[in-house]
Amino acid sequence: MTPATSSRCTPRPAAKPQLSLAARLRLHLKVWTQRRQLAKLDARALDDIGVTRAEADAEARRGFWSAPDHWSR
After folding, report:
1. Is 38 helix (H, G, I), strand (E, B) or coil?
2. Cα–Cα dist 32/50, whole Å
3. Nearest to 62 by CA among 71, 23, 15
4. Which pTM does this prediction carry?
5. Phi first, then psi: what are they for 23, rounded to 5°?
6. 12 and 18 in contact (C-beta within 8 Å)?
7. Sequence ranges of the domains in the chain
8. Contacts for 31 with CB less than 8 Å, ≥ 6 apart
9. CA–CA distance from 41 to each of 30, 45, 46, 48 (Å)?
C-alpha cells in the first residue's frame, strides 16, 4: 500500500510590504485624517455607510499607527 498524499499546498500569508519612512508617514497621516473625518459625520451619513455612532467613535479613538495591513498595498 502507498501512503495517501495531498497535492494541495497551504498558501503562505503574504509578507508585509516594506514601506519607506516617507510612505509610512503619508499612510499614518491619511489614517489620522480619515478617522477625524469619520468622527465628524452625522447620524444620517453614518447610516448611509452602515456604521453606528459607537463603531465610528471606536475607530476614531484608535491610534494613527493602527492601520490594517491592506492599506499599505
Report:
1. helix
2. 21
3. 71
4. 0.64
5. -65, -40
6. no
7. 21-67
8. 64, 66, 67, 71
9. 17, 6, 6, 10
